[in-house]
Design brief:
Number of domains: 3
CATH class of the largest domain: Alpha Beta
Structural class: alpha+beta
Shape: globular
Helix content: 25-40%
Largest sheet: 6 strands, antiparallel
Radius of gyration: 21 Å
CATH topology of the largest domain: Dna Topoisomerase Vi A Subunit, Chain: A, domain 2
Strand content: 15-25%
Order of helices and strands: HHEEEEHHEEEHHEEEEEEEHEHEHEHH
Number of helices: 11
Length: 326
């Protein structure tokens, strides 16, 4: 299996990161707050604080955030370092991963490895294309363990792939390991390699992507869950569901307001780990909607629950959880 090559970063590489993502975009993503770069204080939503205590201002082309509630002062990379207690390299890696951006090297080029040869692609292009193929029995068996059928895969634009190209250069092929692609429209792909522990995901998605949006029906309730895989598992039980790119990103208020105007019952159904529960509590308070999660000692999400048990047990558990919503 060919994978996107690992990158190395040092402190000067913040300029490369800022050429790919804006500093305001990064701060907005992790603070979940409005970024007004003129020093005016805004609410620090990431701390569930209703008092304006967070401000932003440029200093020599670097956007500096200052949180009076915590004493933090620094750029967006420093903020991610402090928020997750990680080092500089890990912070840049996390930012790229959370924005679903394929990795870059120090020369601001996308580096891919094919066999023993390597090549560089100018980062301004980043055009991902694929070659699709029919699902094999083993591939369908992978999805079946989560209760997901081929019909549902097709409905949600999940494809079996033989090749992945970036600017017409092969970067990944199916040579025995599972290789799938989530097609999100307008040329956007999220590539999924479930048997590749180091590079399970790569691709680029627009900020604000919501999986399952186009497949929604008008039935209640609507679950907002953690992944497209969970959306598909819930669909097999005839539940309406959507998922943001990840639990931290959620969705923009315009999209949420459209859901709120359409569905009487909207329920957050994130993972039962600490990040999932923390995000559920945060958005439950922010948007005044209830949340559920699977028991702490159970599999973390709906798809893993079906894998360990079955769809009927998941349906019964969801019914029990929803009955306990206050």
């Amino acid at each position: 299996m060919y994978i996107v090559q690992k990158c190395l970063y040092d402190p000067i590489d913040r300029n490369i990161l800022y050429s790919i993502l804006s500093q305001e975009e990064i701060f907005k993503y992790y603070t979940q707050s409005d970024v007004i770069p003129d020093g005016r204080p805004v609410v620090a939503r990431y701390r569930h604080d209703n008092k304006p205590s967070l401000s932003f201002k440029y200093d020599n082309n670097i956007l500096i955030g200052a949180d009076w509630g915590t004493g933090f002062r620094g750029d967006c990379i420093m903020f991610v370092r402090e928020l997750y207690k990680i080092n500089h390299f890990e912070a840049i890696k996390k930012i790229l991963n959370d924005f679903n951006i394929t990795e870059y090297d120090r020369n601001n080029t996308l580096v891919s490895s094919v066999g023993n040869n390597s090549f560089s692609i100018n980062s301004s292009k980043k055009s991902i294309t694929t070659k699709r193929k029919e699902f094999t029995a083993r591939e369908l068996g992978y999805w079946a363990q989560y209760g997901i059928t081929e019909q549902t895969l097709i409905s949600y634009h999940i494809y079996s792939l033989s090749h992945v190209f970036i600017d017409n250069k092969v970067v990944t092929t199916n040579t025995g390991q599972l290789l799938f692609g989530y097609y999100c429209g307008n040329g956007y792909w999220r590539i999924y390699q479930p048997e590749n522990s180091e590079y399970r995901w790569f691709g680029t998605l627009p900020v604000g992507t919501v999986f399952g949006w186009k497949q929604l029906t008008l039935s209640n309730p609507l679950f907002i869950t953690s992944s497209l895989k969970d959306v598909c598992t819930l669909r097999e039980l005839n539940y309406n569901a959507v998922a943001p790119v990840n639990e931290l990103a959620f969705m923009d208020e315009g999209r949420f307001n459209r859901l709120k105007a359409t569905y009487k019952d909207i329920i957050l159904f994130f993972n039962n780990d600490n990040p999932g529960i923390d995000s559920a509590i945060k958005y439950s308070k922010q948007y005044n909607i209830p949340y559920i999660h699977l028991p702490i000692n159970a599999p973390k999400d709906p798809s893993d629950f079906v894998k360990q048990y079955n769809k009927e047990d998941l349906d019964n558990e969801i019914t029990r959880l929803c009955m306990n919503i206050k």
